[in-house]
Amino acid sequence: MANSSKKKAKIKISGMNCASCALNVEKSLNNLKGVEEAQVNLNTEEADVNYDPDKLNLRELENAVEKAGYGVVNEKVTIKVGGMSCAMCVKAIGDVLGKLDGISQVNVNLASEKAYVTYNPKVTTIQDMREAIEDLGYQYLGIEGEETEDLEEKLRKEDLKGKKNRIIVGFTVSIPLLFLMYSNVMLPIPMPYFMLIVTVIPFIYVSYPIFIAASRSLRNGLLDMDVMYSLGIGVAFISSILGTFQVVLTPEFMFYETALMLAAFLMLGRYLEARAKGNTSTAIKKLVGMQPKTATVIRNDQELEVKIEEVETGDLVLVKPGEKIPADGVVEEGESYVDESAITGEPVPVHKNPGENVVGGTINQNGVLKFRATRIGKDTVLAQIIKLVEVAQGSKPPVQRIADRAVTYFIPTILTIALISFIVWYFILGSTLLFGLTVLISILVVACPCALGLATPTAVTVGIGRGAELGILVKNGEALEVSEKISTVLFDKTGTLTKGKPEVTDVVANDLLASETDQNTLLKLAASVEKNSEHPLAEAVVKKAESEGIGLIKTSEFTSFGGKGVKATLDDEEAIIGNRLFFEENNIQLTPEIQENLLKLESEGKTAVIIGSNHKVLGLIAVADTLKDTTKKALQELRKMKLQVAMITGDNARTAEAIAKQIGIEKVISEVLPQDKAAEVKKLQDKGEIVAFVGDGINDAPALAQADVGIAIGSGTDVAIESGDIVLIKDDLLDSVAGVQLSKKVMGRIKQNLFWAFAYNAVLIPVAAGVLYAPFGITFRPEYAGLAMALSSVTVVSLSLMLKRYLPPAKLLDK
User: Which pTM value belongs to this model?
Assistant: First the structure.
């Protein structure tokens, strides 16, 4: 019996490559309090752990593996859930899934009606999760990626129709009865009996879903809003029945029409809330709708129409005018304009020629294209964007913890307030039992944590969806919150502030090479060496030589020295090309004339590379990289937002200062090697700055990761989705400003939502408890309490939906 409470976990581990690795993991696990035995199999890369679930959980086991320096291989799944109506539903589903063996992380989003689960497939299955959800009484609607959209939409429409019918029945019966109560109309039977006969069937019909949900919650040991609402309307209706038959209560306890109207208001609130919630995820629905269902492929010289799932990498795909491009690929035949606005946000169609890339989900406009599929299915840019947006919409910014904590204590607190209010009014202050019950019912009905539960997820869902429509991909809720606090925006220079396509502006030979012919010789030597390099400056030199018709020489023993220069051998002589530091390290002296020319070129904002051979300086080649069209506007906008703007570059100080002066940047960090950019970001953070780094998603990965917010600037449809906290699809600096503005707007809306949610409860619960009755004679009738409750959630969701029309001011400057 001693071991009956023990559990066994099987953890898949990555990164082990020797026996000592396995022993390290074993030791880390066995050191945990509550672990009975841990055995690690290097061959299968798995750990079998017997542990006491009362002392630790699966997540703590996984943390121990990760702290030992290894990875835990888990799977992630997004489950669609139907039937959630309030924050307590979110908590119930999160708790029941979190208790399953093998689940390490659960995040349930009320706005998108999805559960984001990280789990160990060796221990638990999707079926286990489905059963847990359905046992709670909620609907399992499938997992993200399955063809369940039609079922989801069908169930949503049926749910809305059912709610609408109940609202109509509830108000159609209760409103005339309300007037009848005060009209003194003579009836053939006493009024209480008439009220009971007229309301009993409509009340059962309208309130049935509320009572069923409440009984389900109580069976699972949960106190949620359905329990509170059931208490409120149940007390109202049952006390009316007792009063009608004069059992304990008198006929003055007539709440029949009130109970029915309350049930109708509750249903109205949930109907409006469900409709509004359905509108929060329209952005993701648009993205999913961009995916074509079929494609025309050419196989064995035959045109075949196949399902999109049957397209294979390497297929030749035919796209006619007006059709959606079914996969990512490279154009082989034809030319056409392609509408990429849904992905890049750029309204102007892009002309495609052979050799250029096309992206799945974009629309071919006027020509016939044949392209070779390079990425299909979940690997396409569109599929990655959809996945990123879905995950981001399901994430929680840290501010959500405030609401989560409040919701945990909300129901017990309200029940306590309701009971205390009833006791104070009836037993201590000596009010009538009728007044005491009215106060009790009003408190139970007016209290609503739903607005608290919806405040953050609806704003995050709508805001991130809006960003995706604008070509700004925010990857998680935390990035939204941190972006609001940014104090410094650090820009990489090459390819971010500038176009990243430098051109040769000057070829300066030393005194020994004064003629034009010898300038061409200098260019020939430099281009021959630089042809082996992929650096933008090298490409500019090669491009200049080719445009002058200069033939290049074959080189050997090419070596690159990151951030300094290159060496190679040609015609049995060693050639060296690079910056001052590189020549100093190679003990090659610069002549006064060369130094003077260097200073002159650098003061003009040009990057000068020194050319040498056989330990002699032959001359200089100056290269300039032009600023992007929107650079100055973007920086001006950031300064208006009271943010400090800085630039980081590998250029020498003079060149960097010259460029910074052109665009009004005061803080410049120059002569930084690519691998040291992250360290410079850290230095700013150590000074207390909240840093956003804007750079290339591929080359600046370490700096993007180090920054508080990494903003990866893309180049149209070739964006590196995996980089940065915010990914910009367009190569437009104004979008980096727009990303910060969007984040500030979403966080502002979240705070506004939380304010109204807290304020609503803080003001109306005391009013319902009767605090205004003694001084002003003001009471809060249960019907009004029901209406206020319905409006609270709708107000919060409506405020979030206003973000759908938000256009960051920076986007207006781009027009």
Answer: 0.73
